[in-house]
Each structure stands twice: as structure tokens, then as C-alpha cells.
Design brief:
- GO terms for molecular function: nuclear estrogen receptor binding.
- The protein folds into 3 domains: about 90 residues, Immunoglobulin-like (Sandwich), CATH 2.60.40; about 100 residues; about 130 residues, Tetratricopeptide repeat domain (Serine Threonine Protein Phosphatase 5, Tetratricopeptide repeat), CATH 1.25.40.10.
- The chain has 11 helices and 8 strands.
- A hairpin with a 3-residue loop joins strand 2 and strand 3.
Length: about 425
């Protein structure tokens, strides 16, 4: 049974009630006090004070001060008026019970509203912080892009200036060569003219015989005709440049060594994957347009991974996968995060999914397939499944046989397998 505290003092004004409750020798905390607009309760087991107030009060602005063995209440009235008494007089048990239950119910509803208000405020603060962070990142990205654009314009100007200098130098060399060639042609013509003139000068004593020889000797006529042809030689051709254009190719292999069908299938699958974006997610309503881009989320996850925030990187990759589950690099990067977080089974699942999407095997996805095999093999080895891990490392070596690091790790796994076999 509780011990009722009946000793108290109170006074009032038209707008407030002042109540003093002695609690000497008792330890009182704010948790011991319960107050609504019509109900006041102080519970310090086994002591109890309860009052059904005469009229409603403003429980939000009312206060309670604890000190020197006294609880001093300042209760502000909702309506300015003088009370006949502190508590409600001539109230039966049923009415008192109803007022108590109603007070508790109102307190619960008020607490629930305050909790919901705090939750909404917290969400708004969280959303504001996220938007502020994204704005800062966007400003930083724009600043970096501006710097890149300035550098690119600078390089383009320098390249154009260099091209002009090269063109001027080539033009000067071409003019010089044409002049030299023209000079050589003129010298050659002069030499031929001199030679022809020498052959045409007749000797006085042999003129008749030369004429007769000309008429009767066919060989002399042929020699003369050849000299005439030499005089009529055309001028040398002018120099020119022939441009040759080669058909552009996406893959570095030569056409005779390339698997055209597999390469075209890989390009087609990648193009379809880029166009595949899920629009039925409710989370997309609060996101901006760039936040709905899987590539933007992938870059954000890569930055978080680089700073060591692996959980945030996983969240970014998760949303990107929900937007587009056909991009193998999303699974490959998320597998790296799971390895860092020691989520080995998830790392194996993501690596396997990446390998499934990296088909058909072509030179363009060799690097990604090597990473997928190595990450899955690492997860197998950390789970002490060395045989499966060795198979993945050997598959990576088949793709990249010159990789010394993979070869060393594979050799270590072989030694571990041999040691395990000997121990057993």
C-alpha cells in the first residue's frame, strides 16, 4: 500500500497556481513527476502524491523545481480565474478513475506526437546534410572539370600552334625542294641543248657525205629522231601527299586474329545494359537525376572505397545494382568491399555474378575477368577452401600469364594444399 503525502501548501493568482510539496529525506528526480492538464502525480515509492486539479492548466509551460527537500510547482492556468480549491471536490471514484485514465492516455498521445515530430525533424536534418554534402561534392566536381577544361584548351592551343609551325616548316621545305628541282631541270635542259647543238654543227669537207648518209643510212635518221624526242621530254611531276584512312576498331587485336562475333555480342550486351534502368523503385522519388545514374553511384562508391568507408561504398553499389543489375563492374567493385569487410560468402556471390555477366570472353573484358577470378579465389582461400581458390587463380593466370603477383599467390596456395595433405 502506498503512503500518501498529504502535507502541502498552495497559493494562487488569477493566472497561476504555486504549490509546495515537502519531500524531506527522499531522492526526487524528474522521472518521479507526472503532470497533464488536469492531473498531477508525484510517485516516490512507497510515497505517493496525487491531485485531480480544479481546472485545466498549461502543462507545456508549467514547471517543477526540486531542491532543499521541497518540490515547488508553478502551474499556469489555461483560463484566468480564481479556483475554489486546488483539487476537484465532491468527485466520485468513477470520475476520478476516468480522469486518471484520460490523463495517462493524453500523456501517451503527446509522447507519441513528440516522437513522430523528432523523427520527422531527424529525417529532415539527415536529408539536408545529404543534400549539402552532395552540393559540396558537385561543386568540387565542377571545379575539377573546369580545371580540366582549362588545361585541355591550353593543350589544344599549344597543339594548334605546333601544327602551324610544322606546316610552315614543311611548306618552306617544299618550296625549297621545288626550287632546287626546277634549277636541276633547267640545268639538264641546258646540257641537252648544248649536246644537240654540238651534234648539229656540220664539217665543211664532209657535208655532202653527211647529207648522203642521211638519205641512205637509216641509222643516222634514227639517232636524229631520238635527239628530237629528248628535247620534248615533259616536266617532272609536282609533289603531293596521299592520305590513307584505316577503319577504326574498338578492340586492339588484328582483324585476322579477332573473334568478330563475340566482340559484337559483347558490345551489344554492354549497350543494352547501359539502357536498362529500373524505374519502379520508391526510393527514386527523393533522388536527383544524377543520383539515378548507376555510373554516378559507381564513381561515388569508388571514392568511398578509396577513403576506406567500405560500408558506404557497399550502400552506393547496392542502389546502383537495384537501378541496373546488368553491369558487371558494380558486382566486381562490391565484391572488393565485401572482402575488406570479411563478408566472404557475399564476395564469392558478387564475383561469380560478375563472371556470369562478363561473357562472351573478349580482350576488352580481360582485366575485369582477371580481377573477378582473383577476388573469388581470395575469398575461397580465406574460407580455407584452397582447392577452389587455386582453380580461380589458375583461371586468372590463363588470361594473364605474365602477371607475376598472381603466379606467386598461386604458388603459395599450392604449398598450403601440399602442407594440408601431408598433415592429414
Amino acid at each position: 500500500m502506498p503512503v500518501w503525502l498529504q502535507e502541502y501548501r498552495w497559493r494562487q493568482t488569477a493566472s497561476a497556481v504555486y504549490l509546495s510539496l515537502p519531500v524531506r529525506g527522499l531522492r526526487v528526480t524528474p522521472a518521479n513527476i507526472f503532470c497533464t492538464d488536469r492531473y498531477l502525480k508525484v510517485s516516490i515509492p512507497p510515497f505517493l502524491f496525487e491531485a485531480i486539479l480544479y481546472a485545466p492548466i498549461d502543462d507545456t509551460n508549467s514547471t517543477a523545481k526540486i531542491g532543499n527537500g521541497i518540490i515547488f510547482f508553478t502551474l499556469y492556468k489555461k483560463e484566468s480565474a480564481m479556483w475554489d480549491s486546488l483539487t476537484l471536490a465532491n468527485a466520485n471514484k468513477e470520475k476520478l478513475q476516468y480522469l486518471r485514465e484520460n490523463a495517462v492516455l493524453k500523456a501517451h498521445e503527446k509522447a507519441k506526437e513528440e516522437t513522430e515530430a523528432k523523427k520527422v525533424t531527424k529525417q529532415e536534418h539527415k536529408k539536408y546534410a545529404l543534400e549539402a554534402t552532395m552540393k559540396l561534392e558537385e561543386a568540387e566536381r565542377k571545379r575539377i572539370e573546369d580545371l580540366k577544361e582549362k588545361e585541355r584548351q591550353k593543350v589544344i592551343k599549344e597543339l594548334e600552334l605546333w601544327k602551324k609551325q610544322q606546316d610552315a616548316a614543311e611548306k618552306q621545305k617544299r618550296v625549297q625542294k621545288e626550287g632546287e628541282l626546277h634549277q636541276e631541270v633547267e640545268q639538264l635542259k641546258e646540257k641537252k641543248k648544248e649536246k644537240i647543238n654540238k651534234t648539229r654543227v656540220p664539217n665543211e669537207g664532209t657535208s655532202e657525205t653527211r647529207i648522203k648518209a642521211t638519205k641512205g643510212c637509216r641509222g643516222s635518221y634514227s639517232m636524229f629522231s631520238e635527239n628530237l624526242k629528248e628535247e620534248q621530254l615533259p616536266a617532272p611531276r609536282s609533289t603531293a601527299t596521299i592520305k590513307i584512312n584505316f577503319t577504326s576498331r574498338v578492340f586492339p587485336t588484328a582483324l585476322r586474329e579477332s573473334r568478330v562475333a563475340e566482340e559484337e555480342e559483347w558490345l551489344r550486351k554492354q549497350a543494352e545494359a547501359r539502357r536498362t534502368i529500373s524505374d519502379d523503385l520508391s526510393e527514386l522519388e527523393d533522388l536527383k537525376e544524377e543520383e539515378k545514374n548507376p555510373d554516378w553511384l559507381k564513381d561515388k562508391g569508388n571514392k568511398m572505397f578509396a577513403t576506406g568507408n567500405y560500408l558506404a561504398a557497399v550502400n552506393a553499389y547496392n542502389l546502383a545494382v537495384r537501378l541496373n543489375n546488368k553491369l558487371p563492374l558494380l558486382y566486381l567493385n562490391r565484391a572488393a568491399c565485401h572482402l575488406k569487410l570479411r563478408n566472404l560468402h557475399k564476395a564469392i556471390e558478387d564475383s561469380s555474378k560478375a563472371l556470369e555477366l562478363l561473357t562472351p570472353p573478349v580482350p576488352d573484358n580481360e582485366n575485369a575477368r582477371v580481377k573477378a577470378y582473383v577476388r573469388r579465389g581470395t575469398a575461397f582461400c580465406q574460407l580455407e577452401l584452397y582447392t577452389e581458390g587455386l582453380q580461380d587463380y589458375e583461371a586468372a593466370l590463363k588470361i594473364d600469364p605474365k602477371n607475376k603477383n598472381i603466379e606467386k599467390d598461386a604458388e603459395k596456395i599450392r604449398h598450403l594444399i601440399q602442407g594440408t595433405t601431408q598433415d592429414s
